[in-house]
């Protein structure tokens, strides 16, 4: 039988214990010099390369490693420098300035990389002078050669790069054409230096819109082919399926296809004969975005199937391993659970096991891993029973009736004011939490600290004159991890970090089994806060859609079932809060929109299930209990019907950075539930002026019924300083007080 090869698309930069992050942040805070930074990072890069080599990979990626973001690296390579940063030498400091901003200039925008939680730096084309700067990719490639690592360079392709960028007067096509000769130069240099193939990432080809740029895509790759580079290029895609009939017309060596997140279409298209047999398939068969051990038996069959359709098969992860933690080795885990988990290095081991099986007839590793996989998947924590049908998915009464019942209890003024939940997570707050976690202070001491903080902030809210209070979320590290640590079925790791943007990493909990609520999670703090004041204190929970989207989710049962299990758990917590006398409960869903699938044909189904889960979590309360939700984005129009269907009594949305756009959405739709449009931007330390807030409210009231309107900042205040929060909220309340005085109850619209 034909032999197979193994490869990888990208390895996590962070290092096993976030050494990468620590080195970069030390440089930023001037604790180490640039030379020291370079030495540390070169060591780390070396470690990554050798580690991958040790897993017997036929080819190891270079160009995935970066000082911040690989898209930003590409921008610097081609001199696509934001206008305000032009004129400076293109070096590491410029790279960090563009990424983080400096005293004179704001940073470039960060945007989510497709449907992942990784953020790239958006290239800016205004008045740029594209040319090839120092070819760092070539340097890194040569470095890998000195280590005797068989490497292939990785670079984002021109279609994806331009599509993800902004600014400039040129058309999309013109920008691509400008870049083609520059790409040709860089690619040729790599080939001359001995690259056997170059992985050119074009994930944009998996999107709905890719059909709009087939002509320019074809033109670009024909150009490379005419330059003699075609045989050296592998067009790499991931996260969804491509239109293979089109992709197959691109004259390159082979195509990288995702066989995990393609909804089955990539294989189906191959089986329908859309791929020429002399094209290599770089088959993404091991899930690069989730942490589960693969079912190798299943993968073996997939390989056998693919072998019928190509003369050259390379197996690899479905995407870069940037999206998973580095290694299980540092975790102390229950063996029953460890059996089922696979981080980046373990995924490379799976590839090796398959290669040994196919090429050497060596079954030992394969059998060993498969046995562990089977053992994990047979366990009891995956077989709980749920009675979904006994939980309400609709409130007892209509919004109009609930509103009356709620007003009787809450007695809120015109234009009620509130905040989104968190108050400043100061150094002290974080230190106390860490001290408590590491047993340096007792439970009692920690509790006392939290109570003091809560009491202090209840008093502050009273002094400012807000209407609905919050307790401040001082006990929480992260809005998902906090619940993950307290619900059954979740595993919170110690080193399971994943890069989110720049040096920032998140540690998504792993949902390994059935999710169950076992005891109250937030009741103690909320009840304590409520005991200190007559004003209503809002209970604060994270919703099922967001918890799922920001966790590593199990895949052995349908996604919607996992989401509904979480919803039932949140429902228990909602009822526990209500039982404890809490009259307003907010269930945050900031991740609802970003979880939309890449292909629009799946949007409605996703939204329907999201709405169902949210309602499962929130519908069991009494009419008089007011349910709030909060979301952190604008671009509301596209999913407004789903948001309306959540049937939350009040929604607060982040809008101040794009106020105009959101108000426009409201010209076309009627939103007939309670709504608070964020009236100032919490991401900036700047204290808003009273007129600004007044204007924002008045503008909103042109399209929204005053009796439904709430006034609040646009997101949680955890990143702000105490003084900033006090001042800004005082301005907000002052503005509302004046508006109340002048209120002539004119009918809206
Ligand atoms: N309640 C959370 C907070 O205030 C909401 C955070 C968010 O929207 N991402 O911090
Ligand atoms: Zn928010």
Automatic annotation (TrEMBL):
Domain Cobalamin-independent methionine synthase MetE C-terminal/archaeal per the UniProt entry, residue ranges: 415-737
Amino acids binding 5-methyltetrahydropteroyltri-L-glutamate: 18-21, 112, 550, 594
Pathway entry: Amino-acid biosynthesis; L-methionine biosynthesis via de novo pathway; L-methionine from L-homocysteine (MetE route): step 1/1
Catalytic function, reaction form: 5-methyltetrahydropteroyltri-L-glutamate + L-homocysteine = tetrahydropteroyltri-L-glutamate + L-methionine
Cofactor annotation remark: Binds 1 zinc ion per subunit.
Cofactor(s) annotated in UniProt: Zn(2+)
Zinc listed as a keyword: yes
Superkingdom, natural source: Bacteria
InterPro entries with a match to the protein in the record: Cbl-indep_Met_Synth_N, Cobalamin-indep_Met_synthase, Met_Synth_C/arc, UROD/MetE-like_sf
Positions that bind L-homocysteine: 420-422, 473, 588
Protein keywords: Amino-acid biosynthesis, Metal-binding, Methionine biosynthesis, Methyltransferase, Repeat, Transferase, Zinc
Similarity field: Belongs to the vitamin-B12 independent methionine synthase family.
HAMAP family in the record: Meth_synth
Name assigned to this protein: 5-methyltetrahydropteroyltriglutamate--homocysteine methyltransferase
Species this chain originates from: Staphylococcus marylandisciuri
């Amino acid at each position: 039988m034909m032999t197979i090869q193994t490869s990888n698309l990208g390895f996590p930069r962070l290092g096993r214990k976030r050494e990468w992050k620590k080195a970069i942040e030390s440089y930023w805070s001037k604790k180490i010099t640039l030379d020291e930074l370079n030495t540390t990072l070169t060591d780390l890069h070396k470690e990554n390369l050798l580690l991958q080599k040790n897993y017997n990979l036929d080819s190891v990626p270079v160009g995935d490693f970066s000082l911040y973001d690989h898209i930003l690296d590409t921008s610097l390579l081609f001199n696509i420098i934001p206008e305000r940063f032009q004129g400076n030498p293109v070096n590491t400091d410029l790279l960090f300035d563009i990424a983080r901003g400096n005293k004179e200039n704001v940073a470039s925008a960060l945007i989510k990389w497709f449907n992942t939680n990784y953020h790239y730096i958006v290239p800016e084309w205004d008045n740029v002078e594209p040319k090839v700067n120092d070819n760092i990719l070539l340097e890194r490639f040569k470095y890998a050669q000195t280590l005797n690592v068989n490497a292939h360079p990785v670079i984002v392709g021109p279609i994806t790069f331009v599509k993800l960028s902004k600014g400039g007067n040129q058309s999309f096509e013109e920008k691509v054409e400008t870049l083609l000769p520059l790409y040709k130069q860089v690619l040729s240099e790599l080939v001359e230096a001995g690259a056997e193939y170059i992985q050119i990432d074009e994930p944009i080809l998996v999107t709905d819109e890719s059909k709009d740029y087939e002509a320019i895509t074809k033109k670009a790759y024909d150009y490379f082919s005419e330059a003699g580079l075609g045989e050296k290029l592998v067009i790499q895609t991931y996260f969804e399926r491509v239109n293979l009939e089109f992709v197959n017309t691109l004259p390159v060596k082979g195509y990288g296809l995702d066989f995990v997140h393609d909804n089955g279409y990539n294989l189906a298209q191959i089986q329908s004969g859309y791929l020429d047999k002399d094209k290599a398939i770089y088959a993404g068969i091991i899930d690069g975005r989730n942490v589960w051990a693969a079912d190798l038996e299943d993968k073996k069959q997939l390989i056998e199937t693919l072998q019928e359709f190509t003369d050259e098969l390379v197996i690899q992860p479905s995407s870069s391993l940037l999206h998973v933690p580095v290694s299980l080795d540092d975790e102390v885990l229950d063996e029953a659970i460890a059996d089922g988990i696979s981080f980046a290095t373990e995924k490379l081991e799976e590839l090796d096991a398959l290669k040994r099986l196919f090429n050497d007839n060596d079954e030992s590793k394969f059998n060993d891993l498969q046995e562990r996989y089977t053992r994990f998947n047979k366990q009891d924590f995956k077989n709980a029973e749920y009675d979904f049908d006994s939980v309400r998915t609709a409130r007892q009464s209509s919004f109009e009736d609930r509103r009356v019942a709620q007003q009787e209890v809450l007695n809120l003024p015109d234009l009620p004011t509130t905040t989104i939940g968190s108050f400043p997570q100061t150094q002290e707050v974080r230190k106390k939490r860490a001290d408590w976690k590491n047993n340096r202070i007792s439970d009692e001491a920690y509790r006392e600290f939290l109570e003091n903080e809560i009491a202090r902030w209840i008093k502050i809210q009273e002094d400012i004159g807000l209407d609905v209070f919050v307790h401040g979320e001082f006990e929480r590290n992260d809005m998902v991890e906090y619940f993950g640590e307290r619900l059954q079925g979740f595993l919170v790791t110690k080193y399971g970090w994943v890069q989110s943007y720049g040096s920032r990493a998140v540690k998504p909990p792993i949902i390994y089994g059935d999710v169950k609520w076992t005891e109250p999670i937030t009741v103690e703090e909320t009840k304590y806060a409520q005991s200190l004041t007559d004003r209503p204190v809002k209970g604060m929970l994270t919703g099922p859609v967001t918890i799922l989207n920001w966790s590593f989710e199990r895949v052995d049962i349908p996604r919607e079932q996992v989401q509904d299990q979480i919803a039932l758990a949140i429902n228990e917590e909602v009822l526990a809060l209500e039982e404890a006398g809490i009259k307003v409960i907010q269930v945050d869903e900031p991740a609802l929109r970003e979880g939309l699938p890449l292909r629009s044909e799946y949007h409605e189904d996703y939204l329907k299930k999201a709405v169902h889960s949210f309602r499962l979590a929130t519908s069991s309360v009494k009419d008089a209990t007011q349910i709030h939700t909060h979301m952190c984005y604008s671009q509301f129009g596209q999913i407004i019907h789903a948001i309306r269907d959540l049937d939350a009594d009040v929604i607060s949305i982040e809008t101040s950075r794009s106020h105009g756009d959101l108000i426009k959405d409201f010209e076309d739709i009627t939103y007939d539930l309670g709504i608070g449009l964020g009236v100032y931007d919490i991401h900036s330390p700047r204290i808003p002026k009273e007129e600004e807030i007044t204007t924002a409210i008045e503008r909103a009231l042109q399209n929204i019924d005053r009796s439904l309107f709430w006034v609040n900042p646009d997101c949680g205040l955890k990143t702000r300083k105490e003084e900033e929060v006090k001042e800004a909220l005082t301005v907000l309340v002052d503005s509302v007080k004046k508006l109340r005085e002048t209120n002539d109850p004119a009918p809206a619209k």
